[in-house]
Amino acid sequence: MIKVLIVEDDPMVASINARFLKQIEGMVLTAAVPGLEEAKRVLTQEQPDLVLLDLFLPRESGMDLLKWIRAQDLSADVILITADKTSTIVQEAFRYGAVDYLIKPFTFDRFREALGRYLQRKGELEQKSALTQAELDELIQGGGTSADDHELEKGINKYTLQLILKALILHQEEPLSAEAIAESSGVATVTVRRYLNYMERSGQIERLVEYGKVGRPQHRYQLLPHMRSER
Which helix (H) or strand (E) holds 134? Predict the structure, then answer.
């Protein structure tokens, strides 16, 4: 069983996360604590495998705990849970070894996907003494987490695709540039462009070309009619 520590100062959010966790096979809640000192104590004494860590705590930062975990050379993995989706914070989180980043509010499906992907990656790494490049690429890209993923092109992640699709649905009245979609979805522009190319090839979106008075023509994207939702 994977032992999980929840670090969350809001009792209601902590309770929701704990209920979500109970529905994930292979996971068990070790403790739920509201602050860093309590978290450090649990990490030292109970040695949980995974920390679900809120970034913003009263007068504290979850990032400080992530850095402390790395400084102490603890083996605990960390999934950050926060409303902050600024690119600098996301980059810092991954730089210090966060394995995933959940943006509030998130659905149970996204929560289950994050923990399922973590369980799969951890399980496969523990079972094998060595990996081929193809196996490693599959783990890094999060492939094989569900039957739906096998229908996507290699390198296209279901969750990232959903983020971009959500941005297009949210702004479906007007075509959007790749930069606008990146800002709305929190996905890097270079990644957005790759996914837009995939979505155009697969018949989900259409690309429109706008010619201005100066400079290069600009590409904008919108969902095809069969992909649009009622608002």
Answer: helix 133-141
